[in-house]
Amino acid sequence: MPGVPTGWKLCAANHQLRCGVIALPNGRSRAIFRPFFRELMPIPSIIDASRTERIEFSNDEIARYSRHLIMPEVTLEGQKKLKAAGVLCIGAGGLGSPLLLYLAAAGIGRIGIVDSDAVDFSNLQRQIIHGTKDVGRKKTNSARERIRDINPNTQVDLYDVLFTSENARQIAEPYDIIIDGTDNFQTRYLSNDLCVFTKKPNVYGSIFRFDGQASVFAPHLGGPCYRCMFPEPPPPGMVPTCAEGGVLGVLPGIIGVIQAIEAVKLICGIGETLIGRLVHFEALGLKFREFKLRKDPKCPVCGPNPTITDLIDYDQFCGIPQQRKREEEDANVPHVTVEELKARLDRGDKFRFIDVREPFEWDICRLEKSELIPMAKLPARMSEFDSAEDVILICKNGARSAHAVKMFHEAGFTRVWNVAGGLIDWSDRIDPKLPKY
Ligand SMILES: [Zn+2]
Fold it and tell me: Would the pLDDT of 372 be above 70?
C-alpha cells in the first residue's frame, strides 16, 4: 500500500530503530528515515587533562556512576572530567530545573546557581526542581536541597542575586561552561558577551508556548555567538515572556535536558555538539528541525574587528529604561485604586465596569458586575458608550486596561478610568479568594 510503512530496519544489537521503509506506487521502496551512518565529528574535551590527575572516586561513587563507566565513550576518564568540571546555571526556573537535576546526577563536580527569585505556585507547573513545600523559599535554597539529595558529591554554590555586568565576571570565573536558563534578553546578551570575552562555551536554550530551541555558542571553538544570529534585541515588549504568553509545562524538560546533554558532551569531549547549529523543537507537531548557524564576520563581539570589547549596560541595550518610562506613562492615565473601586461598587455608584481581558481569562476569574469586552473588540464597540457616563476598565494587572483608557481618551471620552494593579491588586488587597494566574 503506497505511503504506508511496510517494515522497519532494526539494529540487531539493541533493537534501536535505524531506518523505516515505505512502499512506493511503482513497486519500489524508499527509506523514510535517514540512515544513521554519518560520522560524528568528535570534539576535544574542554577540561584540560591536568585537572583530572588528582581526581579519585569512593566505592559509592563508582557504583553511582557505573552506567557511565562501562561505556567506552565515557569510562573512568570521562567521569573524572565531569567531576573536575564546573557549570554555572543562570536561573533555577523552567530550563534550570531539569538541567540542574541531570547535571548533578551525572556527577558534575561543581554547580553554580544564579537566581534571586522565590518559588511561587505558578512555577510548579514546570520548575520541577522545586516542590509545593518550597513555595515562598528562595529558589537557590530549594534547588540546592534537591541537588544534595540527588548527589551529595556535587558542590553547589549559590548566587542569590541578579546576574549583571557588575557581578557577571566574578560569578562566572570558577566555571567552565555557562548555561543560560533565563527568559530575558538582557541576561541572554550579557551571558553571550561574557562567554565570548572569557572563552567559555555558552549553552543557550529558549522556550515559548509550545516551541523551544537550543544551541551552543563558542566562537573560541570555531562557532558563532548569539549576536552573529541576532545582533540587536527586539524592541522591548515586542516578544512576550512566558509569564505573558504562557508555556507548556513539559516543554522546558526537553530543551533543558538538551542543554544538559550539550554540557556533558563538551566536558567529556564526545559526540558532536550544537556549536554552529541550532535545534528547534515544536511540541504540537512533534518536530525537531536543525539550522546551520554561521559566524557573522561583522559581529560586534566575536568578529575580527569587534566594536564591543567589554560588558556593556544590557538594560540600556535592550531598551529597558524606555520601557519603564512607557509603563510609568501608562500608570499616569486617570485611574482608581482597587480600594476606591470597591468603595464605588459597595455604594452602588452608577458606572460601566468593563473587563478588557480575553474570554479564556474571564473564565478563570472575574469581578461581579464587570462586563467582558476583550481589548481587540473595544474599537468596534466604542459607539455603544455614552460619553456622559463613567467607565472603569480593568484587566489582569492594569497594563492592558491602561492602554484601553488611552484609546477611549483618543476617541474623545473623558470620564474613563483604569483600575491600577487590576485583578492582581484586587486579590492581594481586597479579596484573596479571587484566584491569581
Ligand atoms: Zn558573534
Answer: yes
Span from the CA of 437 to the centroid of ligand 1 (angstroms): 38
pTM, full prediction: 0.84
| Residue 212 CA, ligand 1 centroid: distance in Å | 21
For 317, the grid coordinates are: 541595550
The set of cell numbers assigned to 71 is 561505556
- 279 domain residue, yes or no: yes
Known active-site residue 395: yes
Paired residues of 203 in beta bridges: 179, 216
Considering the candidates 195, 242, 299, 318, report the single residue annotated as catalytic.
242
- If asked whether residues 314 and 338 sit together in one domain, one would say no
Domain edge (last residue) among 306, 324, 342: 324
Reported as half-sphere exposure (CB side, CA atoms, 13 A), residue 105 has a value of 13
Distant-in-sequence contacts of 317-322, Cβ < 8 A, 24+ apart:
317/186, 317/189, 317/233, 318/184, 318/185, 318/186, 318/189, 318/233, 318/236, 319/233, 319/235, 319/236, 320/186, 320/236, 322/236
The answer to whether residues 53 and 28 belong to one domain is no
Domain identity same for 320 and 342 = no
| Judgement on whether residues 5 and 115 belong to the same structural domain of the protein | no
3-state secondary structure of 214: strand
CA 40–ligand 1 middle distance (angstroms): 25
Rg over alpha carbons for the chain, rounded to the nearest Å, is 26
Query: Is 245 within the bounds of a domain?
Result: yes
Residue 193 Cα to ligand 1 middle (Å) = 9
Q: Residue 394: what pLDDT?
A: 97
Could you give the maximum distance between any two Cα atoms of the chain, in Å? 82
Question: Do residues 110 and 179 both lie within one domain?
Answer: yes
Are 367 and 426 spatial neighbours (Cβ–Cβ below 8 Å)?
yes
Q: How many domains would you assign to the chain?
A: 3
What integer is the mean pLDDT of 97-109?
98
295 C-alpha vs ligand 1 centroid, how far in Å?
A: 6
| Closest listed residue to residue 101, CA positions, set 145, 161, 160 | 145
Q: For residue 68, what pLDDT is reported?
A: 97
**Grid cell listed for 158:** 549559590
* Confidence band for 10, pLDDT divided at 50, 70 and 90: very low
Residue 43 in any domain: the answer is no
Residue 118 C-alpha to ligand 1 middle, in angstroms?
34
CB atoms within 10 A of CB 15: 9
Cell 523552567, residue located: 94
Give backbone dihedrals phi and psi of 299, rounded to 5 degrees, phi first.
Answer: -55, 130
The per-residue pLDDT for range 11-30, each reduced to its tens digit, is 445 555 555 565 666 777 66
Q: Are strands 277-282 and 287-292 parallel, antiparallel or unpaired?
A: antiparallel
Query: Which residues constitute the domain of residue 353?
Result: 333-429
